């Protein structure tokens, strides 16, 4: 019976533990190998969002203002901010979303 008592003690690195570490090691290796692709996708989303925001701001400025000065198309050298909205001389304001003639 002494042989069975000595054999029933646990081992620090049993076969079950080693078999459980294999899938964990594979998953960590795959994640580490694919990290470059994940970082590229994150950068792509950030840059695309930045570009879309700049485009939307530009479109908004062009359609809601008549520019600075408001008659900039007559002398382009004085242009500070371009705009395409119609300028109403009676109210001295741009008419938003109405293009000038």
Structure description:
The protein has 101 residues and is mostly helical. The chain has one domain. Helix content is 54%, strand content 11%. It has a two-stranded antiparallel ribbon with strand order 1-2. β1 and β2 form a beta hairpin. 5% of the residues are buried. The model has no long low-confidence stretch (mean pLDDT 84).
Q: Roughly what fraction of the amino acids lie in strands?
A: 5-15%
Identify the strand order in the major beta sheet: 1-2
Order of helices and strands: HHHEE
The percentage helix is: 40-55%
Derived structural class: mainly alpha
Total helical segments: 3
The total count of strands amounts to: 2
Q: In whole angstroms, how far apart are the ends?
A: 106 Å
- Count of domains: 1
Oligomerization category of the chains in this entry: single chain
Roughly what is the average pLDDT, rounded to an integer? Answer: 84
Q: Can I get a quick summary?
A:
With 101 residues, the protein is mostly helical. Helix content is 54%, strand content 11%.
What distinguishing features does this structure have?
11% strand; two-stranded antiparallel sheet; mainly alpha; 2 strands; 101 residues
Question: How does the SSE layout of this entry go?
Answer:
Blueprint: H1 2-7, H2 15-33, H3 35-64, E1 85-88, E2 93-99
Antiparallel strand pairs: 1-2
């Amino acid at each position: 019976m002494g042989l069975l008592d000595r054999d029933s003690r646990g081992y620090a690195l049993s076969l079950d533990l080693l078999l459980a570490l294999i899938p964990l090691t594979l998953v960590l290796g795959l994640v580490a190998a694919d990290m470059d692709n994940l970082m590229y996708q994150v950068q792509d989303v950030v840059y695309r969002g930045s570009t879309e925001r700049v485009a939307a701001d530009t479109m908004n400025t062009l359609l809601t203002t008549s520019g600075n000065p408001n008659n900039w198309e007559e002398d382009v050298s004085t242009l500070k901010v371009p705009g395409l909205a119609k300028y109403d001389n009676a109210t001295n304001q741009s008419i938003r979303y109405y293009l000038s003639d």
